[in-house]
């Protein structure tokens, strides 16, 4: 088989939540490591806000001096195009590869901002990994492309063969597509939320496919690590 045939569809939005951890940066880093079974970010947009020290709620004011940050990796295929989604220029950092350790260092730098007084502490408002690369398992050595049916058009996407397996990169030039999987952290209603968006549903929501099994494994590990399922399709059968 020279290519896989998949369909872009409405997919699924998976949501989990947890109370705010004492080690917020460490928790985010660990979550990235867990999700790396299936998806790795190429770039991250970060919006910071202040949180009341004695509660889990964000406040609209005051605003941190540097509220918006962006980090992206530079070692990508030549046809991969990445940019920040913020209109107003954020603090930008470029790294060769966006690893969990580099993420940890970057978050520490971004969140080392003195609050106006002891009533506040810095917190993540939103943190989006919209540009990603996604691991493919259902392939043979001859597989070179994914043929994606997106509405009435068919798009051919090249599979990148790397030392750790087969990957599809999002955001290739001249292809207006969502990443097959992307995710976002957010602080709402006193909880830390994790939303995982699947836009090529068939590969990851059909039991029996390795992609589905690896996503289920990652979700189960997140639950065992303290995340609470809020909206998880029954096909993942979490314990």
Spell out the blueprint of helices and strands.
Layout: E1 3-8, E2 12-18, H1 24-35, E3 39-41, E4 43-52, E5 58-59, E6 68-73, E7 91-95, H2 100-111, E8 120-129, E9 132-136, E10 145-150, E11 153-158, E12 160-162, E13 165-169, E14 181-188, E15 191-198, H3 201-205, H4 210-224, E16 228-231
Parallel strand pairs: 1-10, 6-7
Antiparallel strand pairs: 2-15, 2-16, 3-9, 4-5, 4-6, 4-8, 8-14, 9-13, 10-11, 12-13, 14-15
Give the topology string: H per helix, E per strand.
EEHEEEEEHEEEEEEEEHHE
State which percent range the strand residues make up: 35-45%
What's the structural domain tally?
1
How large, in whole angstroms, is the Cα Rg?
18 Å
* Largest sheet, strands/sense/barrel: 9 strands, mixed
Oligomeric state, counting identical vs distinct chains = single chain
Say how many strands there are: 16
Helix count equals 4
Uncertain stretches:
none
**N- and C-termini, Cα separation:** 36 Å
Coarse shape? globular
Mean pLDDT: 88
**How would you classify the helix and strand content by structural class?**
alpha+beta
Helix content: 10-25%
Which structural traits does this protein have?
alpha+beta, 239 residues, globular
Describe this structure in words.
The protein is α+β, with helices and mostly antiparallel strands. The protein has one domain (3-236). Helices cover 18% and strands 39% of the residues. The chain contains four helices and 16 strands. It has helices spanning 24-35, 100-111, 201-205, 210-224, and strands at residues 3-8, 12-18, 39-41, 43-52, 58-59, 68-73, 91-95, 120-129, 132-136, 145-150, 153-158, 160-162, 165-169, 181-188, 191-198, 228-231. The strands form three sheets. Strands 2, 4, 5, 6, 7, 8, 14, 15 and 16 form a nine-stranded mixed β-sheet that branches. A four-stranded antiparallel β-sheet has the order 3-9-13-12, with no helix packed on it. A three-stranded mixed β-sheet has the order 1-10-11. Strand 14 and strand 15 (191-198) form a beta hairpin. Helix 1 runs antiparallel to helix 2 (100-111). The longest helix has 15 residues, at 210-224. It is globular and about 60 Å long. The model has no long low-confidence stretch (mean pLDDT 88).
């Amino acid at each position: 088989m020279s290519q896989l045939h998949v369909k872009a569809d409405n997919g699924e939005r998976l949501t989990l939540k947890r109370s705010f951890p004492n080690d917020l940066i460490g928790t985010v880093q660990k979550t990235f490591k867990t999700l790396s079974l299936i998806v790795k970010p190429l770039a991250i947009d970060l919006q910071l806000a202040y949180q009341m020290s004695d509660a889990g709620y964000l406040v609209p004011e005051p605003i941190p001096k540097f509220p918006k940050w962006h980090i992206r990796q530079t070692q990508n295929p030549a046809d991969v195009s990445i940019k920040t989604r913020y209109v107003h220029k954020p603090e930008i950092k470029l790294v060769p590869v966006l690893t969990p350790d580099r993420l940890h260092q970057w978050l520490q730098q971004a969140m080392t901002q003195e609050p106006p007084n002891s009533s506040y502490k810095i917190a993540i408002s939103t943190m989006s990994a919209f540009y990603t690369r996604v691991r493919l398992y259902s392939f043979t050595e001859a597989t070179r492309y994914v043929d994606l049916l997106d509405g009435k058009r068919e798009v051919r996407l090249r599979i990148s063969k790397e030392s750790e397996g087969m990957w599809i990169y999002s955001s290739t030039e001249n292809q207006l597509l969502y990443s097959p999987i992307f995710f976002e952290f957010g602080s709402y209603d006193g909880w830390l939320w994790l939303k995982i968006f699947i836009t090529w549903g068939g590969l990851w929501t059909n039991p029996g496919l390795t992609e589905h099994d690896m996503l289920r494994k990652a979700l189960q590990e997140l639950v065992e690590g303290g995340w609470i399922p809020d909206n998880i399709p029954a096909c993942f059968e979490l314990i």
